[in-house]
Amino acid sequence: MPESPPVAKPRQFRRRRQVRWLPSVLRGAPVTVSFVAVFWILGLLSSTIVSGPAVQWRADVAATAQSLPNHWWAVLAAAFWARNLLGYVMGTALVLLAGIPLERQVGSKNFSVAAILTQIAGMLAAAGFWEATRALTGSWAREMSGLFFLGPSAFLCGTAMAATASMGALWRRRIRLGVFGLLILLALYSGGFADLGRLGAGAAGALLGPILLGRRPRLVRPVSSRHEGRVLVALLVAVSAVGPVVAGLVPHAVGPLSVLRFLFTDIRPVDPQTLKGICAVPAQHRDCEAAHLQLRAGAGAIFMAIVPSFLLLLLAEGLRRGRRFAWAGVLVVQTGLSLLALTTLVGVLQAAGPDTVAGELVDASQPGHSTQPLALVVPLLVPVMLFGVLLACRRLFPVAAPRGTYTRLALQVLGMAGVLSLVYIGAGLALAPDFTPIPAAADLLADAPDRFLPLGFTADVPPAFFPQTTLAVLLYEGVGIVFWAVTGVLVLKSFVRPSQPQHGDDKERALAILKSEEGSSISWMTTWAGNTYWFSATGQSFISYRVIAGIALTVGGPVGPKNQTATVVEEFFEYCRSSGWTPCFYSVSAEVRNVASGLGWDSAQVAQETVLPLDSLSFKGKIFQDVRTALNNAAKAGIHAEWVRYPTAGLSIQTQILAISEEWVADRTMPEMGFTLGGLDELNDPEVRCLLAIDAHQQVHAVTSWLPVYRNGRIEGWTLDFMRRRRTGFRPAVEFLIASAALSLKSEGCDFISLSGAPLARASPDLHLDVTPTGPPATAGLDRLLDRLGSALEPVYGFRSLLAFKGKFHPSYVPLFMAYPDSAALPGIGNALTRAYLPDLSLGEGFRLVRNILSEHVGAAGRSGRQAE
Asked: Which one of 304, 339, 500, 514 has the fewest CB atoms closer than 10 angstroms to its CB?
């Protein structure tokens, strides 16, 4: 009988490998291991493992607001002790889980420097903040003066933030957003000395990280994409939603915004028998009313108290997706909270008159403590400030749901409310003896609306009756829970439904013309959000445009029959003139430029389009050596090209495309451009094709998107739009994708591909241009200005480098023009173009852009002077 296979040896081998792996990991983090050893040795030697440092010498090792100057060493020593055994265990776990990978990421020396400096900086920042603001923050400063900090959490936050400087842009932003969001939330709502210390250490680490790597820290990084702006606003709303709940759950929350818990969660339970005893004494009328409110503090009542937070969290997800309904919903909720905050504030101030002590208001919930009026007013203005932020960021949320989505949602919600009301009244009558006093049908009917309202909006109205049994409590509290839970699911589902195309019928009409007639290679960009449509008198042609500061800026030329181009341009000019606008045809062909020149308009070349005919394409010969190398290296690396449509791609593919895009824009000093340059939002179109470079592990290395070019009812070509590569992926992935797309589309019978235009960039004069210019020449001064603008923007956006990159495919070069009726309108046109391409450009970024242009102008003048000499 043959022997059975030796199965034990592989298991033994795996165990040995695991045993060997652990020492190698620990050897790679000597500072972390040494800290853990010292942490426990000091705890054992000082007998602080069980209950922490004794009171008589705690000031020597625990950091407090008063540690300076007499106990200055405590700001560093605090990291080596913990409050109790749980603190030692949790601290050790945090150090090992976070410290080991962080030390391996940045190196032992940098890790040590970051840990020491951020620990000290965090404690000093907390103490300094307390010293600077204690005259303004009322009871918060007094509470913090009695708190102390022990443990390694501060320097772990600091080293984590420092280590992000060595990470890729995408993960750096993700970690910083998450950690700082949590630290700020705890500092504002919990508000302990430890919370401020961790926040200070994190901020110090973010500044120190680039310095340790030999770079200059950047204090403020502009929002570089629409998606990032949405994430930031959504995070702000989510923090405002979770914060009051955190303040309500933390036993001794003293943060500057902790007073907001009174709007949601400051309810203490009381049983019905205690309520009867309190209300039996006439002199305890105010205590009786308070007990009425506290009776509502069952699990259902707590949920109803935090309904605004629940809704804001749901709507924050909609904001992240750019949904206009979520934006409007947050405005409605914040309006309600602002009114509730105002009512609460007025009530507190009116009731505090006799209890005012030395200009401060007594906090009835915490005897012996008081709050300055200013400390009450500022937190309650938070909903108002959020309201303002949302109004300022309105343009970030243009995505609409399909038509009828929210009509159906409203009907579903109203119908559910009606059914639940009937259930409440019917079941309430059946369980009437389980309430006290016993309600009649009219009482239940009058009380039904209160079952659906958040508790903060009904807190001032004592209930007409109370549930006494379990069934009665389930009915009394369950109606609201079911209503809001189901409503939340319905709202969340509306955010995942495909977005509604903009402009409704006009867009559908324009799309029909685009597919049946003829446009340019960029005509599909007319379907993008933000454009308006004008139709010719015949209805066979249209022009897509957007009005910015009185300039009607078109997206390409007319779309429609070519023999009507001249008539359409004239009609659109008359339409703009009657509306008080100045038309500007942007990125148009020489044909449209010539028509405009016949009307006496001026023009200038603003871009260079690169077109690749497919009929004779083969990528053979020496001139295509780089392209063939990219194709061959991709095959060796196991990377292939795969066509997908973004809306129907799998979640993994969509997530990777999003990550590549955000990594691409995260490190830029200027925001992502729009108008004729598409981003992630423009990928979400079933007509747009995406070509991905994917390896055997289904990792996406690069992505390109292609817009269809319709002519007379068929797709004759495709235009390259979105083009981004993973920074750590296959380096020539974009060359590989463009070459693969050309070969694939040639096999499909397409006539050409356009690699799109490069704004403010021109091909060398010796290259063949597929156009014979006619009409008046472009203004020489404007040409020089555009050249300098392109040179100034080159370090930021790289348009000239992009044109040079496309040159390796040896395309035909087709100039694109801007045509305008009056040179006096050039300043307005320049402003309109800037706001079209950079709608979210801040004032500081605008000044930085102007400074770059001026420095380039001065440099050009200097070079000209030297040449003249």
From this structure: 339
